[in-house]
Design a protein that fits this description.
single chain, about 110 residues, mainly alpha, flat
């Protein structure tokens, strides 16, 4: 078996150009500056939504490019999707607990 046939058996490996990494890094730095700038603005309740939106976008860039998810197999995508689905379940349980805490009166301590 020659080297080319052996490489074909291992699957296709994608080589990302260095310029893409520098571009993603520049984008992450710009998004960090946006996050800091928005923190100084008074947007009311939108501050947290904008900050979380930028954070999710930055995390997506890191996972897709620096962790090489963009060029991974379908199985890897399924595992990441299952992890995100599990995170949504846990956050849903957390919010259900937090939002229903005022439904019952606080217990009183009797001495």
């Amino acid at each position: 078996m020659d080297a080319h046939a052996h490489h074909a058996d291992l699957g296709h490996e994608h080589v990302t150009p260095l310029s893409v990494y520098f571009g993603i890094f520049g984008g992450l730095m710009a998004l960090t500056a946006i996050t800091v700038a928005v923190a100084w603005l008074n947007l009311g309740s939108l501050n947290i939504l904008v900050a979380l939106g930028v954070a999710v976008f930055k995390a997506s860039l890191v996972v897709l490019y620096f962790m090489h998810l963009k060029y991974s197999s379908k199985l890897t995508w399924i595992v990441v999707g299952a992890g995100l689905f599990w995170l949504m379940i846990l956050l849903g349980i957390l919010m259900a607990d937090y939002l229903t805490r005022g439904w019952l009166p606080s217990p009183t301590i009797v001495h």
